[in-house]
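Hi everyone, sorry if this is the wrong subforum. Our group has a chain we'd like a structural model of before ordering constructs, and none of us has done structure prediction before. Sequence below.
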Amino acid sequence: MQNLEDLWDILSGLDGQSYGAYKSIRGDYQAESWTLYIDKVQGDPFAAPSLCRVLVEADYAQLPGELSASESRILGLTDFLTRQFGQVARQLGQSRGSGGSGRIEMARPSQAVLVRTSVIWHGGLKAGGPLEARFTVGLPAQGRRILGRQAAAMFCEDLPEIVARSLCYPALDGNQLLAHVKTVEDSRWLRGELKSRGLVAFVPDGAVLARRSGVDERPLEDAIAFNPQSPCG
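Answer:
Right subforum, don't worry. Here is the predicted structure as tokens:
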């Protein structure tokens, strides 16, 4: 298997060639504690971006067992890591070439916590195992000429930093992550109790239900928090 240094050399050698030459980078590349898979390479800078993923070894991710102690906790964990990966990628993102060039992106989730395939925990309940993150890369070009050195910087400099800051537990806010996981666990338990209690929904005290608009999920500014004791609660 080739490594990231090999990928750097390959991409640097492609600099200035026609965009179709990017097809040659499809394959697997080993980093120190994770593996990059370039599964599908786009044929044009204006086409849908290339499909990539990383498989991170458990010893590198260092995720505590309590975060994967139940299916609900695994859901919360992968949701948190999806949001973290996307946030770090946006922070490091920069304009590189034309079209959709120069972007490393992961599907941005809504406020809802759902089962997704953006981040997958392969460890099972409480067991150590690899962590998989799936994302897209807009391979950089100027017109239809490859910007190979900029692509090399994306894969060999930006991506390792994204992995280190979003998929490695020591770099995360452990308290925030655990709180997120426990909140998801609690909400799923509460939903599971509704039917047996003859209920259809629950609203916690103090919830801000109003949203800014039909396409903006953020809470409405200056909205009145839900209070079941108030006359209009």
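For your construct planning: The radius of gyration is 21 Å. The longest helix spans residues 71-92.
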